[in-house]
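User: Sequence recovery, please. Input:
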């Protein structure tokens, strides 16, 4: 390694002073004060030790006996003393295993005079990463590698991973955090890539492990409708595993068309014209038995001059709402409804595939109800049955009292439509607001009220009421 740090040499000399004579009479008899020793390092000595350590000689001049020492434990000096000079001592330095540069001082002493020389040892170059293993999910994402180094470094991604693992930063990076992006893994197989971080002969390898995607066979569309004149159907799917195709129904009118231009994940089928007045359908399965994966597509062909609905029956909630579906037709048609609790929402006519929307009112009764939506075009007709569930929120309210005459509490709720009162003496009647009952005998009576859709109950007073049971309200 090239030396590039210079020594700072400090030499401290103690000046000598001669005191003047106190008296002219004593000047001839007084001896002169001795001069302080002089210590001088030879010029041009600048010591920088390599990381591995070693030895170096230091030359100096002393006008009196001297001693030598160093102020750090990782170095030593020999000899430690000597007579007048010129003289030489040898510095010995051990290897520097730390990532920091270090320095020490050679100290020479002679009488009251001290001389110092500072020398330097280079650091050990270091390059480390906080973790050599990083795991990434199949969906991909960001990867961060933290590097600790006291020298500049670079990084390189191995060729096998270069297509899915890319560096966000440029080369010759000096940041302690390096950023990479891992692309999504669309295969079910796990994969790994290596990032090599290097500086000269130093290097660290980080391995990035990425999970494989969950195996799956997914059709982009599960249902296709074809007109009576026939045509072609293109079935597209996504799969990261090998798969097979099987016709689940005997449909001679449906044949697969194989062309070189069609990819593995696209299958094309030819549908023959339908000369019947009944629609027909066929199911095609795509599967991997080993992994237990499967998905099915259904191709339906309408009858000649027909109106086709995807389903002939719909079940809706008792609270009502909106019923949306599409019909495929090649004729103009009219819509008729068999019940007033269904009404058609505004829509646009004249399309080959026509979206329709119907508003369903809430069912106030506990029993389910049905209605039919009919589509007609001349002698052609098609119908859809709508089944609406009955309200299932029936509850009970029980009141125990000792009154001779009892007034029924007020029952309310936006969907409250029915109630029946059992007075507790064998008498019962339909609920009506402010109903009053008079008992023939004294004592305690239990009033039970069957309710449908009730949400609130209000008692005008609690006089004579000994128990109120709302657990089934």
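Assistant: Recovered sequence (473 residues):
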């Amino acid at each position: 390694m090239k030396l590039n740090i210079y020594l700072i040499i400090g030499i401290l000399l103690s000046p000598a002073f001669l005191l003047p004579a106190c008296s002219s009479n004593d000047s001839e008899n007084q001896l002169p004060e001795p001069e302080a020793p002089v210590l001088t390092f030879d010029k041009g000595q600048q010591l920088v030790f390599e990381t591995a350590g070693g030895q170096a000689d230091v030359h100096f001049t002393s006008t009196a006996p001297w001693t030598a020492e160093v102020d750090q434990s990782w170095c030593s000096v020999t000899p430690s003393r000597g007579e007048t000079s010129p003289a030489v001592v040898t510095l010995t330095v051990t290897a520097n295993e730390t990532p920091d540069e270090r320095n020490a001082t050679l100290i020479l002493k002679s009488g009251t005079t001290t001389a110092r020389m500072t020398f330097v040892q280079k650091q050990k170059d270091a390059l480390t990463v906080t973790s050599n293993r990083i795991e990434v999910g199949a969906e991909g994402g960001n990867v961060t590698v933290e590097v600790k180094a006291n020298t500049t470094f670079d990084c390189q991604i191995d060729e096998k991973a270069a297509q899915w693992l890319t560096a966000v930063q440029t080369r010759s990076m000096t940041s302690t955090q390096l950023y990479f992006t891992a692309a999504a893994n669309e295969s079910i197989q796990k994969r790994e890539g290596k990032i090599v971080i290097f500086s000269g002969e130093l290097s660290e390898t980080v391995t990035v492990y990425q999970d494989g995607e969950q195996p799956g066979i997914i059709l982009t569309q599960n249902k296709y409708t074809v007109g009576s004149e026939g045509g072609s159907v293109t079935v597209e799917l996504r799969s990261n595993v090998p798969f097979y195709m099987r016709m689940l129904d005997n449909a001679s009118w449906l044949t697969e068309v194989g062309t070189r231009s069609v990819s593995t994940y696209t299958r094309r089928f030819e549908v023959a014209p339908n000369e019947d007045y009944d629609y027909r359908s066929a199911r095609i399965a795509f599967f991997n038995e080993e992994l237990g994966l499967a998905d099915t597509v259904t191709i339906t062909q309408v009858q000649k001059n027909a109106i086709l609905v995807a389903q002939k029956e719909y079940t809706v909630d008792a609270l009502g709402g909106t019923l949306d579906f599409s019909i495929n037709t090649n004729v103009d048609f009219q819509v008729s409804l068999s019940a007033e609790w269904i009404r058609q929402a505004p829509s646009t006519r004249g399309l080959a595939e026509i979206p329709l929307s119907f508003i369903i009112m809430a069912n106030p009764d506990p029993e389910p109800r049905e209605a039919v939506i009919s589509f007609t075009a001349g002698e052609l007709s098609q119908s859809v049955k709508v089944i609406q569930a009955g309200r299932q929120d029936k509850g009970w309210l029980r009141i125990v009292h000792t009154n001779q005459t009892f007034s029924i509490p007020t029952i309310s709720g936006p969907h409250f439509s029915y109630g029946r009162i059992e007075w507790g003496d064998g008498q019962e009647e339909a609920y009506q607001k402010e109903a009053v009952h008079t008992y023939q005998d004294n004592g305690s009576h239990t009033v039970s009220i069957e309710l449908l859709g009730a949400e609130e109950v209000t008692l005008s007073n609690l006089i004579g009421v000994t128990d109120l049971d709302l657990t089934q309200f």
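The radius of gyration is 50 Å.
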